[in-house]
Design brief:
By secondary structure, the chain is α/β, with parallel strands linked by helices. Helices cover 31% and strands 13% of the residues. It has a domain of 267 residues: 3-Layer(aba) Sandwich (Alkaline Phosphatase, subunit A), CATH 3.40.720.
Length: 391
């Protein structure tokens, strides 16, 4: 795949490149996110949920953004937003669970346990020198970051994190031994691989807690984040990154995009939240001179049906994604999927580009990793979509 856009100037090499992945859970409606207001078919199919042309934030004479995405438009005007159209995979699955599993493992044909970001963490830190190479903010570790034997931290809230594991000396050892006995069958030998793995997992968690809980102490900012969970997750990511502990992969997520009903109000609230949070995050990085060190990937597991259901939209395919950051070469990538009924996939948008092409582009161009073993194959890349940090 080629792009006619020129490469944005590189970073200053003060730090290693960092990837932030933001998951929009529930299936974001791309037609009401990047709105094809110049196509009359859009209003034919979206008789009740369509966004009026005078409300759309125009990007050009055919496409625009949801009215609540003004902060994203500001980043677009800086050249910091790439919009990737028609992202998906062959034979799309409309199940939330299966489709998200496919995105998390980069494997649409069979069920596997290894997460694509778990492989990234392993390749970035093969000797496991830093247990905080990968950090997720939210409830539980996302499947994408799981890889057996590779540590990754999960943080619900940064302030106070690690207090329950900040025991010292003999108390810490007794607690770890109790944890190991609890989850190990009696017939397993004390020196077994399973016990070693469980014990190491506990040690990694406690070491990570010690590192992460100190991050807020090194952080000051004039940016006032909102109190919602996503804003606080991105604030935590900024704190950890700016603390310099060496995290290379971050994860955050926001739910609620399964808009079968009340879509107009729900999307208004959701995109106001996402746009504000992302804008504050990059403003924070710019304030600290760290904006060129971070690229954010924003994705959802699938799109929605082309025709609305009268009050919302149902599960579809042919979604979209965003890359955001100072080193991103902003603009549109690939054609927007056709709304013509003869070109639809059973009432859905056809995907134009495999999501593993997007992953491969970020892995190769930004993180300087070989993408093939991570995404389970070789896929065309979006050329020059992101510029590496300058050496």
């Amino acid at each position: 795949m080629t792009s006619t856009n020129s490469i944005v100037n590189g970073g200053n090499n003060r730090a290693d490149p960092v990837l932030v992945v933001l998951q929009l859970s529930g299936g974001n409606d791309v037609l009401n996110t990047v709105v094809p207001y110049g196509d009359g078919l859009y209003y034919d199919f979206r008789s009740t949920t369509g966004i009026a042309e005078d409300q759309v934030i125009h990007l050009d004479d055919h496409f625009g953004l949801h009215p609540e995405m003004g902060p994203i438009k500001d980043l677009w005007d800086r050249g910091d937003v790439a919009i990737l159209n028609g992202i998906g995979y062959p034979e799309p699955d409309r199940s939330h669970f299966r489709s998200m599993d496919i995105w998390h493992t980069a494997e649409p044909e069979k069920i596997i346990s290894d997460g694509w970001l778990g492989k990234v963490i392993r390749d970035l830190d093969p000797d496991k020198h830093n247990v905080c190479t990968g950090v997720s903010f939210g409830t539980g570790l996302p499947r994408a970051m799981y890889l057996s034997g590779t540590p990754a931290m999960s943080v619900a809230q940064l302030e106070g994190y690690g207090l329950l594991t900040s025991m010292a000396g003999e108390k810490q050892r007794r607690a770890l031994n109790a944890f190991t006995r609890m989850y190990t069958p009696e017939e397993i030998d004390e020196q077994s691989t399973l016990m070693d793995h469980i014990g190491q997992t506990g040690l990694d968690a406690m070491a990570g807690a010690d590192m992460l809980r100190a991050a807020p102490d090194h952080y000051t900012s004039t940016v006032e984040y909102a109190s919602d969970p996503l804003s606080q997750s991105l604030r935590g990511i900024a704190q950890v990154h700016l603390s310099g502990i060496g995290t290379r992969v971050f994860y955050a997520q926001i739910g609620g995009f399964d808009v079968h009903g009340n879509e107009v109000n729900m999307q208004t609230e959701l995109w106001a939240n996402v746009s504000r949070s992302v804008s504050d995050f990059f403003a924070d990085l710019r304030e600290h001179g760290a904006d060129e060190e971070v690229v954010m990937l924003v994705f959802s597991e699938f799109g929605r049906r082309v025709r609305d259901n009268g009050n919302g939209t149902d599960h579809g395919s042919g979604g979209g994604a965003f890359l955001i950051g100072s080193n991103v070469n902003g603009g549109f990538y690939s054609d927007y999927p056709s709304l013509d009924p003869s070109h639809q996939l059973n009432g859905d948008l056809h995907f134009n580009n495999d999501f593993r092409s997007l992953y491969s582009s970020v892995l190769d161009q930004w993180l300087q990793l070989n993408p093939s073993p991570i995404v389970n194959g070789t896929f065309d890349q979006f050329e020059h979509i992101v510029s590496p940090l300058a050496s």
